[in-house]
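Table 4 source record.
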Amino acid sequence: MTVTTDEMGRTPRPQLPLRAALGRIQPALALALAGALAGIACAGGCGESGQAAPPPGSGSAEKAPAAPAAPREHKVERHGKAMGTAISVYFWIDDDARAARGADAVFAEMKRLDEVMTTWLPESEVSRVNAAAGDKPVAVSDETFAVIARAQDIAVRTRGVFDITVGAFKGLWKFDQDMDGTLPDPADVKKRLALVGYQNVVLDPAKHTVFLKKKGMSITLGGIAKGYAVDRCVELLRKQGFTSFMVQAGGDMYVAGKKGADPWVVGIRDPRSADGRYFALAPIEDHSFSTSGDYERGFVKDGVRYHHILDPRTGQPAHASRSVTIRARDAFTADAWSKVMFILGPQEALKLIQREKLEDFEVIWVDDKNEVVVTDKIEKVLKLQRKPTPGI
């Protein structure tokens, strides 16, 4: 997913109000609007500095030297890469050098967490857990244990719709650096499916160990670790005194504060737009705004879209949604639950939201029929700009 704001910093034109209620499926309405795939900007502007008035005197035309202009707050952005995705940091600030130091700290923290939680490095903690599957428990750091424990809690609450043991499909479904457009043999998918099951992950809180009961099992934190990393970076920036900023790791974002008196305005990408335009905008403050979409890593073959969001119950790419965006109080929550909302689709997911009493949790779907579905609170601020593009 990519979220973006008006590159010129302008407040979006008012749109017709939404009329969808909780769970009501509606076509996205409004005008077409060109947008950037990943440009995030600030809304509003700043006034210009004036000059000192000429001193009183006997009619001299000479003016006093102009007063030095005070630094004005403006958008500063920095970009990098970690955790297999693009990392972006945006500040509303009057000190570029300070913003650069803050961004460098974010990039360093993202890379540190990546080295701990990735499955692409054999020495990472998660890789060591996988290597010992069916053999012995492996001790991990406090933060890796906390992320795995949170994942297990969500797995229980969703009855396996979210399940980090889908790591068993790595190398079979190829949607990462290994993506080559090939499909796995259905017999191989069935074989790997026998290794999927959160019930076979054993955690020891006292020893901080993780044990996978079956040989060949493998966990992946790709569906939750970026959200955790974003929250860690938000905490880091706040400790450094930053109050108005955004941190984005791929589809996971947290928005802090405002741009002066104006809110940050972020957009939701049109899942089938060839140029990454967004179809909706929303003002966000002190919340996560994260999207999972079937367009992020995948391909179309023989008229079917295959992508990286697998349903752990079937071992196949999920098809009930095209994209899901969640506004939540933290990115950790939004990251993991967005996969659940995507896999279930709006009808079943709305029941789950009520059953689990998820609070401060709002969802925007583009479903498998290309219709927009929203929960009740986010509809009050969401501004639809155009109908999502049709297509496979």
